[in-house]
């Protein structure tokens, strides 16, 4: 199935987005090679948000590589998937669109991230914040 907005998705797909703790962000690096990395994320006002948080990074005083890459080329895909040894439970949702990098804290997005991740309640991410506004959303599951 294909949708233009998250609220057009079937209930199972929206639930996967709202409840699953990890997504995979696909983007192009500085040499236009595809890269995929796990990220925390939350749904807020129809967009999918992630943020650079306090976990150790290898930026060494420089801007984080994924942030540099997204500033260079905003095209990205965010995939949320459910794997199971019971293949009847397999499912995924993929949002395609442009990522906007916002250097300032975004109150609504921060609230959504803090509500989803207890770790962010005591130590909220400082950013930058990554806002993926879907142009197209694909979803699939093995069983109807």
Strand content: 35-45%
Largest sheet: 8 strands, antiparallel
Ranges where pLDDT stays below 50 over 5 or more residues in a row are none
Radius of gyration: 15 Å
What's the average pLDDT? 93
In a few lines, what is going on in this structure?
By secondary structure, this protein is α+β, with helices and mostly antiparallel strands.
Question: Can you give a write-up of this model?
Answer:
The radius of gyration is 15 Å and the shape is globular. Strands 1, 2, 3, 4, 5, 6, 7 and 8 form an eight-stranded antiparallel sheet that branches. The mean pLDDT is 93. The protein is built from four helices and eight strands, in the order βαββββαββααβ. It is an alpha+beta fold and 144 residues long.
Blueprint of the fold:
Layout: E1 2-3, H1 11-19, E2 23-28, E3 34-39, E4 42-44, E5 47-51, H2 65-72, E6 75-82, E7 91-102, H3 107-116, H4 119-122, E8 129-141
Antiparallel strand pairs: 1-8, 2-3, 2-6, 4-5, 5-8, 6-7, 7-8
Which descriptors apply to this entry?
22% helix; 8 strands; 38% strand; alpha+beta; 4 helices; 144 residues; eight-stranded antiparallel β-sheet
